[in-house]
Specification:
The chain has 12 helices and 20 strands. It has a 6-stranded mixed sheet, sandwiched between helices. A 6-stranded mixed sheet has the order 8-20-19-16-13-14, with helices on both faces. The protein has a two-stranded antiparallel sheet with strand order 2-3.
Length: 454
Amino acid sequence: MPGSHLPLMEEGMARWPFGPPNAGIALDFVGAAPALDELRALVEERWKALPRLTQTLVAPGSAARTGLAWWTGRHRWASKDGHDLAQQVDSADATLREAVRQWFHIPFPAERPPWSLHLLRGATDGEFSLLFRMHHSLLDGRSLTTLLRALLDDGGPLDGAASLAIPGPRRRMVSPGTAAGGPPGLLTTGRAVPLPHRGAREPAYTVVGLRADVLRAAREAVRTGEADSARPATTNEVFLATVSGVLRACLSADTASDAASGGRAGGAGGAGGAGGDGGDGDTAPGGRQVWLSVPVDERPDDCGEFLGNAFANVRVPAPVTLSDPTARLSACTGLLTTVTRPRRASEKLVEGTLAALPAATLALAGGRIFAPAYAPAACSYVHLRERGRTLAGRPLRHLTIVPMVPPADTATFALGGCTQGHTLSVATNSGSQDAALLAETFLDELTLLAEGSR
């Protein structure tokens, strides 16, 4: 609500230590770009009743982020009544990659709502893109797809009351029984996975497209359920298994590097090295698991149009010691099975206690929760479902995610999907060569999984 303090999740993103907490989604279309006035009119029509889009973010203390007020206070949302949404919409002679380089490392002006919609030229002639860029404390991925779907031909004006329907005590949560041994403790760490570290250590971002036939084949590599009603693996399960394969490759490369340099035998790759027999599926050498961080939408079914942040980051084990891609996929099936239930009293108590002093909480815990051993990779999957295929008759081609700059020595893998296919984005803090190599390895691992299904 306008004037309210940020909940803990949003406060954490407002204090993100690795750069401005900017994120976004780009929709790529085939056809001539609409006129800027046409796009602004559509935004005014479809988004005019949404209070969230007129709020500004007010930081505690000084703009320099110093002093007692910064450490003891909390950010809050302030209403900017009468704000013209069209002011947030512009056009630029730039592609998505150029826009990411130019804008995603620059904070939003404090006096304006922290979001913008950009009309960009496409990567080739006859294409264009819409890029929604935001401060992540404002919206999550589900909110973005709700907004962008409303602009498409089968969309309509969004309801202001529904956009404010904050999920109550009932939340969608990952079933605690889906991961062997239950979820890890809040500050439990596992094993870090070394990135390739080729080139300069700096924020980097790359995008690759996934072949639809390869993804379909990969899903068929494992079927679950009774024989007469078995289902293929979900796209999200394939995603987790493939990222696990990428991390396994990083561990194997590290082991080979240690061996070549005369380092310790059975180093970081250990049981996960190339040609290994698999081990227990997810525990790395020394008994430490490799964890994947995954955002899970907490909205119950009756709060699907809530705009804001309603997700929880959960950690699931990455089966990096399994040498068979199909076995890794089997290990990932069911990891994100969700249930809708009331929050327990203990959960409310912990959340309330941590949110009371968010600056102190983040300062004390940040060294651990941002460490590579906490989660060397994050996996985010955002997709437009059955609707949303054209904008004023122009066909939607791709949905591409731009994640926040991740913690140092970690990577974020973001899968964007629509009816026409999927794209993979990779963000790192370790340079463009690393980002490109991780994306290439993902494609290789996905191909291996698809070939296994055949």
